[in-house]
Input
Amino acid sequence: MSVEKYLKPSVINQIKRLDLRAQFVVKGFLHGLHASPFHGFSVEFSEHRKYTAGDDLKDIDWQVYAKTDKYYIKKFESETNITGYLVMDLSQSMGYTYEQELNKFDYAICLAAALAYLMISQQDPVGLVTFNDRIRQCLPPRSKRTQLGNVLSLLSKLEPSGTTDFQHSLGQLSAMLKTRSLIMIFSDFLFDETQTLNALYRLKHGGHDVILFHILDEAEVSFPFRGVCKMLDPETNEEIKVDADGSRKDYLKQLKEFRDGLESRCRQSGIDYVPVDTSMQFDKALLEYLLSRRARG
Amino acid sequence: MTWANLAILGVGAALVSVPVILHFLMQPKPKEMLFPAMRFLKERRESNRSRMRIRHFLLLLLRCLLIGLVAVALAGPSVASSDFGNWLTLGGIGFSGLVVATILLFSFFRQTKNWLLIGILGALFLGHLIYGSWATSKLLGSESAQLIGDDQAPVAALIVIDTSPRMEFLNENNTGLEKAMEAGQWLVSQFPVDSQVCVLATDNDRPFFSVDVAAATRRIKTLETNFSGSSIPAALLDGIQILNKAPQERKEIYIVTDLTRESWAGENPKPLAKLLDQSPGTSVFVFDVGVENPTNMALTQLNLSDVEISTNGRMSISTEVQRLGPATQRTVKMLIERHEPPLPVVRDEQNVFPTATFDGQMVTKDIRENSSVPVKFTFSQPLELGVYHGRVEVEGQDGLAIDNQRFFTFRVGATKRALIVHPTNVYPRIIESLLAPRDKVEAGTAKYESETTTQTEFLRFENLSNYDAIYLLDPQPMAEPIWERLESYVREGGGLGIFLGHNAAEGGVADAGFATPTAKRVLSGTLEQQWFNEEPDLFLSPKELTHPIFNSIRGNETTVLWNRFPVFIHWGFLPDEDDKLPTQTLLRFGNREPALIERTIGAGRILVMTTPITEYSSVEGRPIWNLLISGNMVPSYLLLEGIASYLVQGDAESLNVGIGQIATLNNDLREFPENYQAFSPDPGKPPTRVNAVDGKLRYRFIDFPGHYRLKGVMDQTVVLRGFSANIGSAVTDLTRIEPDQLDAFLGAERYKLARQRDEIQRQQGATRRGQEFYPLVVLMMLIVMAVEYLMSNRFYRS
Output
């Protein structure tokens, strides 16, 4: 049970090594699951063992029972490999936090690292792509154990900067991808909605599975400010003076409309949309990934 | 409106500019922060910005208002108390106008303008402005507004002190009058120097301004309970007129009373209310010295069965014991004084009255809460001729003692002699049994001594003056000399009762013997034709029962059913026009024809009834005239009893009178002396001299309840006479006046009601200095401060 605490961003922030962070997150996550979501899809038969009370009846191998008159349970291992891309938004806005332990980018890195760890342990090839106004780095997918080190190494060196051109960046990515892949995009999507959707549609049209991790800061979700504030956009340096109390209601309404709209369109296009904020535990994001993988299995 | 310190208002006006300057110079620096999700703020930026401006404007307005209110509070505004409500209304209008103006401004400066709304708001604002200006100018110019300010300016004060008997109510060892006198003296002592004071009691005294404060105080100290005084409204009407003539601008009226309803009863509230309306600058204070829930025991008016009885006569006295308050048990006692010559006398400047009494009668009664029980005493002891005084009293302590005693006087006189005259075809038994019932005659208690004779015999009677009353029952025609004798008899003081019937007819019309000049005078008119009514639907129809002949019927109206005693025939009557002889119709039939007519000739009385009271149902050979004495004879008996008593002038003497009335006693100089010493019930009041005039003794100064004794000497023998005076039952009614009734007299919101001196002082201060706005302004300041605090916290919270 103790490992589950590592699902909390505030706890994981105390661990400086990214590989350990990823390890702790995944272990904490897996420990918390009641039944393994791996079983039943995309795994390969490996051995039999005797049935014991409490085992799922559907796993009983009836052919063996017919032959031996004894109950045996089938055990599986991974059957197919999914090529996964972790696509990180590097823009300046991702470096924002108001009063959380992790900013949006740190949170995204932790999440990506955990997913990479999970995929490598599943022997799935995983690659890493970063972008802001264009694709900045690209680590091709590998399923070797060393790939995890490479991914984590690259992630740990990333710094958010510049503005975002999502459509252009994802256009480049789409052109790069040769095989059907699982694209996991980590971004705050604080740019033009149409641009976002166009790029996503293109990816989806290319036959890829897409999971959007919409990462916002806790302050962006709850708007906890009081009084008159002068707000500065980190990407455009635009500033406006607002009465936070008077604007909260409108802001939250707008944000909700944006998130609901994005989710609705993603759902229509078969894209998984995972809204998270930096105060949430990591398991939600990880579970979303696993469910997506299961659906594909 | 006056200001305690107008300069501060100017300073305040200058200081209001401070928050405006600060607002522009020291606007708080907004907190700067990064925020990537600004796109969601930008879409509503304009509306948020205007909202922020509005809030800043409101905050600025609140701060200016706060400073303004501080300045107003320190400047100390006050207005006339009577205008305070109007000023508050004006304030409400002002506030409402401000709200309308604010909405109007925002509507006007909005990007999307709703011209209809702007038009409506503009009209509303204009309406507010016009009404506000009109109301302000009216309030500033009101008379009462001119009088406030200096609370040490001399006043013209009218102090009306209730001196009714109810003020004798004892509570906490003080009577209401004592409290009122203390209050009055205190009021006089605290008037500003050079004030003029008029102390007016409800004793019918003329109002006047005392020469100085000391004289006013002395006047208050000499006040006494008054039993025949005026009501408070009547006193006020007199007092206000003199108050209005006073030169002082500030006029104040103080009414010191127990606020009992009776003090205001019987008066039309409109004249007083109108008079007060004409003096809007006059302040009215009501100082209540009464008791909210008084308890009292009282006796109602005594009801004597007879005021004159024979030496062996019997008399009953009935009354009611009334209780105001919780249930209790009390003993009621009846006492009759014995004669104790030579009392009453004056010894050591004190009147000494008889104290010995016949054996008293007592009865103990349980009286329920706020109810009454009847009490009846019967007295049948042999007495000598003369006048006797008695009293009925409730034993035990009581808040208001004055109504625990009732006094009565009765006379023991010689038996009255009556002559009953009847033709042989008329049976006089009804009158005989009424005047002298056999049992009473045998017991010696009959009121009358009757003698019966036929009309033929009667014509030979020489001296009629031996009889006090003569009854002519269905008389036959008589010659003019007989009528003249009868007229002479009446003129000398005799009583004549004539009951006309079939014997007066000759061939269906009145006999000429009833149309002689003297007969017309005696009968008070001319007999015309007989009125026939075949159906049994004509009855006696008494309308008003105020005449003494109805004394026995009065109070039993509901049990006397005249419609069971039809009249079939009666004489029509043409009244005599001789207006020198007082004549009145006392009773009519249902067809409005006269049934009983009264005429006074000289000292005597005549009663003429146009249908007989001797019609037994067994009459033969002629139609029956009426069924007045068939079946139940009680109504006719009661009527005849009244007639009999009236004919012998049993009502002529007022032995029991009310306070303020005039007592009149017959004083035949052949029987009584001409001069008397009159002793009032007050032992300290020296006796006065009363002389008989025209055979009557009249005593006018009845101002205290009790026995009034007249002592005269005739043929070296002391003659004692007298009468009793009582207060009316309502006089001691302690029921409090309802607020709306008081409002009707003094005007709602027109007067200040107080029970304590400090309340009066506070109200005086409010009236003289005006009603101060300070508490209200401070309250507004607190509200504005709270709102400002909340708003500024909301805007500038870090």
In short: Residues 416-647 of chain B form a domain with the Rossmann fold fold (CATH 3.40.50.880). Chain B has four domains: 2-28+45-148+772-796, 155-294+738-768, 296-412+653-732, 416-647. Chain B touches chain A at residues 28, 30-45, 47-49, 51-52, 55, 794-798 (CB under 8 Å). Chain B has a mean pLDDT of 85.
